[in-house]
TrEMBL record:
Protein name: Nicotinamide mononucleotide transporter family protein
Localization per Swiss-Prot or TrEMBL: Cell membrane
Cited PANTHER family: NICOTINAMIDE RIBOSIDE TRANSPORTER PNUC (PTHR36122)
Transmembrane annotation, as ranges: 12-33, 40-60, 105-124, 136-162, 174-193
UniProt entry keywords in alphabetical sequence: Cell membrane, Membrane, Transmembrane, Transmembrane helix, Transport
Pfam families membership: NMN_transporter
KW Ubl conjugation (keyword) present: no
Principal place of residence: membrane
Higher taxonomy: Bacteria, Bacillati, Actinomycetota, Actinomycetes, Kitasatosporales
Entry similarity comment: Belongs to the nicotinamide ribonucleoside (NR) uptake permease (TC 4.B.1) family.
Length: 213
C-alpha cells in the first residue's frame, strides 16, 4: 500500500499524492450521491475511508483511526438508509429537520468529542499533525455522517462547518488535493442543503419530538 503515498503529479507547486487524490475524489462522489439520496453514497464513502486509512496507517495514526470510524459510520448509514428508503415516496429516504433535542445532543457531542480527541492527540503527538483542528474535523465529520444517516437536513450545516477548518488545514499540511476537494465540497453542500431543505417541506412531516426548525 506504500504506492498510495507516491506522487501522482504537481499542482501549483503542491505535490499531489495518489491516496490524497483517489480517496478524496471518492469522498466527493459520495457527497454528490448523498445529495441525490442514493444508497450508493455509503459504499462509496466506505471505499474512500478504506483508501485513506491505508494511506495514513503507519505515519499518521490519528488520521487512520478517523478513517476507521468513518468506515464504521458508513456501514451504519447504509443500514439506516436501506431501512428507510421507501419513506420519501420515490424509493429514497425522506429528508427531515432534526428536533431541538437532537440538535442539542449533536452540538454537545461535537463539543465534548472535540475536546476529548484533541486532548488525546495532544498527549500523543504522533497521532496528529495539529491536535485541535484535526480533532474538530474528526468529530465534525462523524457528527455530519451520523446526521446524514438519520436523514437530517442539518448534516449539510455540519459539513459546511467542517469545510471552514478543513480547507486551510489541508493546504497548510501539504494535502493540497484535499484542500481543493474541500472547496468543491462547499459548493456541493450549498446545493445539497437547498435540495434537502425543499424536499423536507414538500411531503408530510413525521411526528417529531421537540420543535422543528
Amino acid at each position: 500500500m506504500n504506492s498510495l503515498n507516491t506522487e501522482a503529479f504537481t499542482l501549483f507547486g503542491q505535490h499531489i499524492l495518489w491516496s490524497d487524490m483517489v480517496g478524496n475524489i471518492l469522498g466527493l462522489a459520495g457527497l454528490a450521491l448523498g445529495w441525490r439520496r442514493s444508497l450508493w453514497t455509503w459504499p462509496v464513502q466506505f471505499a474512500s475511508g478504506l483508501i485513506l486509512f491505508a494511506a495514513f496507517y503507519g505515519h499518521l495514526t490519528g488520521s487512520a483511526g478517523k478513517q476507521a470510524v468513518v468506515m464504521a459510520v458508513a456501514g451504519y448509514g447504509f443500514w439506516q438508509w436501506n431501512r428507510g428508503r421507501g419513506e420519501g415516496g420515490d424509493g429514497h429516504i425522506a429528508p427531515r429537520f432534526a428536533t431541538w433535542r437532537e440538535r442539542g445532543a449533536m452540538v454537545a457531542a461535537a463539543a465534548v468529542g472535540t475536546v476529548a480527541v484533541a486532548l488525546l492527540f495532544t498527549a500523543y503527538p504522533k497521532l496528529s499533525w495539529d491536535p485541535w483542528p484535526d480533532a474538530y474535523i474528526f468529530v465534525g465529520t462523524i457528527v455530519a455522517m451520523y446526521a446524514q444517516a438519520k436523514g437530517m437536513v442539518e448534516f449539510w450545516f455540519a459539513w459546511l462547518l467542517v469545510d471552514l477548518v478543513g480547507v486551510p488545514l489541508n493546504f497548510a499540511n501539504g494535502y493540497a488535493f484535499s484542500g481543493f476537494v474541500y472547496v468543491i465540497y462547499g459548493a456541493l453542500v450549498l446545493w445539497g442543503m437547498r435540495d434537502w431543505w425543499l424536499r423536507s417541506r414538500r411531503g408530510p412531516q413525521p411526528a417529531l419530538e421537540g420543535a422543528p426548525a
